[in-house]
Each structure stands twice: as C-alpha cells, then as structure tokens.
Design brief:
With 343 residues, the protein is an alpha/beta fold. The protein has 14 helices and 15 strands.
Length: 343
C-alpha cells in the first residue's frame, strides 16, 4: 500500500474549498467505489496507531480501522491508501476531499463535530486522556509537582488548552514549547530542552517506546482530560458516515460474541445464535442498508480482526507499548466499549 505524504498547499486548498470553506461531501461511497480504494488520513508516525514498518506498510489501530472500512466496502482490506498528516493539516485534508476518512488519534469535541464541516461517526477507537511523561531522574511523582516546568506540546491539538486549564486550575506555572510533530516534541524531552512531554497517554507510551532509553521515563498517574479518539468524515454525507460508524460497531460486536478472525467463517455457516447470524449475514439483509454485501462483517473480521484482536495486535501487552485495555475493554468486562446491535 502506497504511503502518500500530504502536500496540501494553501492556494490549492482555497481553490478546492471555495467560498463556503468546506468541500461538498457529495456521494463519498460512489467516489470511493469509482476510484477503487479508500484514501485514509493517518498520523505522521505514531506507534500503535499508524506508523510505517521497515517495508513502508502502515501499521496501527487507526490504520486498521481504514482497512476494516475497505473490507466492508470492497471485500478487500488492502484497497486503502494512506496520507500521513500532522495535527495542523489533518482537518484541511479531510475538508478539501484529499482524504475520504481521517483516522488519526483525533479527539471528538463539540466544536470539531458541529463547527468545522466534519462529523464524528460515534465509534470511539480509543478512550484516552491527557497525561505527562517525565525523566525519572526529575524525581517527580505527580503532575502537581510540575510548578515552573517547561513543557513540550504538539501544536494544533486539544492538549494546549487542556494543559493551560489544568495548570491554571491548580495555581501552577509552566512554560510551553510547541512543535508541529510528535517526534519533535519527544526529541526535545530526550535532549533536555523541556522537563515534561504532554499528550494523550497512549501517545506518551508510543513516544516513550521510540526513545533511546525508554525505561528512564515514566508516565505520571494523573489523567487531566477526556480524549475520546475516533475516525472523522465530512459532514453532509450520511451514507458514508453510517458505513464508518457501523464498521466500528461491527468490530466491537464481533469481539463481544466471541467471533474472531480464526472462527468467523465457520460461525457464519453454522451459528445457531440469532444475534450472531444477523451480524455475520447468515440471517437477514442488513448489509443492504449500508450498500455493502451481506458478508461485510465476515470480511472485516476475517481480514482485519475484531476490536480486541486489533487492540492487542497494535497496543496490547505483547507490543512495546504494553497498554492495558482499561476503559477500552468491553462493557461486560470492566470497560466502556459498547456497540448497538446489527438488527
């Protein structure tokens, strides 16, 4: 799969966006089917979420969400291309039509969902929160000990406001240093330019894994915000929004039902469970509502996996990030991940 680096220029974006400021969403599904692939906007390199391996293949939970959409639409999870985007350019790329879906560790907020010509489908890829990463030599055990600290922050993110609110609310002072990319922020922490790196906690674990001596750094216990991360599409195209939403829900429902990449085909043929039969297309024609084939969930799970498989492969205990499921466990297993049924 070809990795495309965004080269969006201000002049060309203005020409595309026109007077209204946003591209017309139109029939995204028709356009995607015509060109034969899903163009997916991902991060500029965040382990566990979207990062190229040695061969250039993009790996991570965000990338797998786009592969799942391709599996549902085409029956082929490989029919996806990736645009690597930094935090500043990600929304313009989606608004302009450069990408069909943004799956880039992006926090759902009211202003983004209602005021930017964008729409969050509602499936949350990862429930997260802002935290702080420090060198253990600093001797800090709590974020409330960071008075006077110099803090590295990625520009164009919700982190800037959240950190400002936290320090003001706790009567603490700090000096922010902003960077365009997460790698720049992490390198500045490593070099000693700043005392603290702040971001979503998942991103802190990912960046720590890339440092020369990751065990020298600790994530402080405080979580100072709510950061529900999920895919984003353009507003005004309910058909495409529904596909992305239900792809995510299908992955969660499959995990809850014990449907995995290894048993999904057998279950589709032999299940006696009515809910599973509907989910896997053995009963009813629920794919028609989304304009996809009746085995769309089978293809998602067979080729990409259920939510739990995708989480463990990219973020779980067997990976360098070693992240617990926590809030991202299913609702019936101590977490808050919950999906409406296919029926």
């Amino acid at each position: 799969m070809k990795v495309l680096k965004s080269t969006l220029a201000i002049v060309s974006a203005a020409a595309v966006l026109g007077v209204s400021g946003f591209a017309q969403a139109g029939a995204t599904l028709d356009a995607v089917q015509k060109k034969g692939f899903v163009q997916c906007g991902v991060s500029d390199g965040l382990p566990g979420f979207s990062v190229p391996d040695a061969s250039g293949k993009i790996l991570g939970i965000d990338a797998d969400v786009c592969r799942a959409v391709a599996a549902a639409v085409f029956g082929d999870a490989t029919k996806v291309k990736f645009s690597q985007l930094n935090a500043k350019e990600r929304f313009t790329a989606l608004q302009s039509g450069e990408v069909d879906i943004l799956s880039r560790n992006t926090t759902m907020t009211s202003s983004r969902d209602a005021g930017m010509g964008l729409k969050f489908p509602g499936f949350i890829t990862y429930y997260d929160g802002i935290g702080f990463l420090v060198n253990s030599k600093l001797g800090v055990k709590s974020a409330k000990e960071l008075d006077g600290a110099t803090i590295c922050i990625q520009a164009g993110t919700t982190t800037e406001l959240n950190v400002s609110d936290y320090f003001r609310g706790n009567n603490l002072k700090y000096t922010p240093i902003t960077f365009d990319t997460s790698d720049e922020s992490a390198k500045s922490l490593e070099s000693g330019r700043c005392d603290v790196l702040t971001s979503d906690k998942s991103q802190l674990f990912a960046q720590r894994s890339k440092l020369a001596a990751p065990k020298d750094y600790v994530v402080l216990p405080e979580t100072i915000s709510k950061e529900p991360l999920g895919p984003v599409v353009r507003n005004g195209d309910d058909e495409w929004l529904a596909i992305v939403r239900w792809v995510g829900y299908a992955m969660l429902n499959a995990e809850e039902a014990g449907i995995t990449s290894k048993n999904v085909e057998a279950e589709a043929k032999s299940t006696k469970n009515p809910d599973v039969a509907r989910l896997l297309g053995a009963d009813g024609e629920y794919g028609k509502d989304l304009k996809v084939k009746k085995d769309w969930v089978v293809q998602i799970v067979k080729q990409v996996g259920n939510y739990g498989e995708v989480f463990e492969r990219n973020l779980g205990k067997s990976t360098p990030l070693e992240i617990d499921r926590g809030l991202n466990a299913l609702w019936n297993n101590g977490g808050i991940q919950y999906a409406p049924p296919v029926r």
